[in-house]
Amino acid sequence: MSIIAQMGPLTKVDGSSLIESKQTKIICSVTGPIEPKSRQELPTQLALEIIIRPAAGVPNTREKLMEDKLRAVITPIITRYLYPRQLCQITLQILNSGESELEFAQRELATCINATLIALIDAGIALNSMCACVPIALTSKEGSDETLLIIDPSDEELKSSNSVHVLALELVDQCKTVKNVLLLDSNGDFNEKDLFNILESGEVEVLKLGKQIRHIVESKINSDITSI
Amino acid sequence: MAKDIEISNSESKFLLEALRQNYRLDGRLFDQFRDVEVTFGNEYGDVTVKMGDTRVHCRISCQISQPYEDRPFEGLFLISTENSPMAGPQFENGNNTDEDEILCARIIEKAVRRSGALDIEGLCIVAGSKCWAVRADVHFLNCDGGFIDASCIAVMAGLIHFKKPDITVHGEQVIIHPIEEREPTPLGILHIPICVTFSFFNPKETEENIKGESNEEITVIDATLKEELLRDGVLTVTLNKNREVVQVSKAGGLPMDALSLMSCCHKAYSITEKVTDQIVQAVKEDYKSRNKYSELLSSENAR
Amino acid sequence: MQPQTVVVLPGDKLPLSPSSSQSALTLGPGIYCNPQTHEIIPTQAGIAHITHPKPHRTQLYVDYDSKRYIPCVGDLVIGCIVGTQGGDSYRVSLSNFSNDVSLPYMAFPNASKKNRPTLVKGDLVYAKVASAEKELEATLECLDPGFGILEDGMVLDCPLRFARMLLFEGDDKQKKEGTSSLLRLLARHTKFEIAIGINGKIWIKCDTVSDTLACYRIVLECCKSPVSQYDSIVKRHFKEVAKVVEE
User: Fold this and answer.
1) Closest in A11, A25, A55 to B53, CB measured
2) What is the pTM of this model?
3) Which of B1, B30, B37, B247 could lock B50 by a disulfide, CB 3.0 to 4.6 Å apart?
4) Which of A127, A129, A228 sits opposite C161 (nearest CB)?
5) Which ipTM did the prediction report?
């Protein structure tokens, strides 16, 4: 999976990122730590407000579900206890979905996770570790029982697949080591062998993507230093 | 609004004093509109408009729907303008009850939808039972003032750029041809309304402004966020290239006399002309870049 | 041992030599010690500085480009009064949307129960952070001379990194050059008063509006430009404001 990313395109929020991966294009903004509303406040840690807005139409249950999954991935990697009784606002605007059927949200979810990570780094929110996320599809080869694994499937490939998956891993140590599985979200028809296969080949891809994200952030740091 | 932006006394005092001495903070002239940058995405009807730091994204989409019972020959057209904290943390998600936000939505609605900029009769497929429902979703990405002006440009550029899939009608049956199969058709645009917003500042006491003989208020076009927060009055004029005034909106604020309203309209017209040409030109260029290969593929070249 | 600088991202392993693990570690901004595992990791993306001020002593911090100010004791900040609380302190905003901090009436020079400071909502103050605990509201003080209200002038927001550079660049080179290069360039053109808040706010005041405006535009542009261009930026803006005066 390869992405084109821009760090900090927006000026009125603390951190932002714009990510393009194939047809999917998402912009993310992060503001925090700021004063929360009293209903959001958590006594010992940072509260997260996550909003995902679709390119066309009003936010629906599909977006709500994505928000929940994103929250599950992002919460463990933020050093939340550094910011008690504070709030971090994460807003994602999908500019181009890249998925024509509403039943699929794999490309959007994976891109949302990657965009949020880069925006969090840009905003200077303390993180315990990095993460990266790839969408995966399984299709059966024509005329045989063998399954074929497609990393970063396109819209067409999603539609013709047997099952679709999203894999997010927590990365530490210069993004070379996998510390934990943050999300493995699967949908469709698959068996245990397929799942292990996904974890195995997915790990290689996630590490590759982690390296790429690392490169994006490092080049931003370097360009900032030379500018002053 | 969640929490407001704090503006110190020093800032407000300085901004007004600078205006009195003919300066704007960003170095523009009083009647200078920011440069507009229109860019298109991969799909039809995907537009981003940038004016200075202000950034607005608009997405046009369409689907087949049922027309209203009392208007069987018309299609549906909806503009959605919802704020999110992306444009700035002062905006709350899903809370569009704020006065400014409602005003902004209403002005855009009036300027584009109610002025008949889109030919909604052309969206009718089968009278009374099937029509196109066109939807414009405006997303505010970065707020540095001038949301109304920028989103009007974004919606209009999106509508001009958008193409809906071609259809064939067999009695009650409608076949939609995917964009890949058949060349899609553009929407019918009847005129291009452009909003220009004027902000007024009162250099003297309020009393002087109401009772005084002469109007000394300072008029500024296309205010930035700081100017918007400190202004005493606002006027939005919507015009099109045919010299038609589509709407004049002035909700409260400093009183103004008829002559200055006229001069505002004249100033707005020259901006309208320029921006309209720019939108049309941008769409034309984008179509051209999309059709890079069509010349090679066309039958004329084959010979 | 030589000081080290290295680019780090959150969760990276820090290049600490085994011997330094026995020495006393001082953790600065951007470094976090996990209370459960006692692992020391960077939490920010930036340049990690590892220095050894004394033998058996190691200092660690990450120099990173933060956007939102988090109060730290001893920081010099510019705040905006947003109200009063309980009749004994002001509420002060250090950056938009952040938690407000408090400035007690007693934290002014010569303050007593009878002699109260007379600040109103919207006034700017230059102050020092007196206490800052993450669980508690931070407090400010204006006790030393030079602190207190900033009257008139103009305030602008800049990246925290830029404010730090303006404030500390002068410090570092004090013996050689005096103040930072940008301030010296400005001083060639006009007389000015300046207050630099480490919370990303710069207040500037000249005798005339046009000069203040020129300084305002220059600082805003210099935030985004390399040092080599400062000279031409300064010249251009002073020329621009002079033009309008003539008209």
Assistant:
1) A11
2) 0.93
3) B37
4) A228
5) 0.90
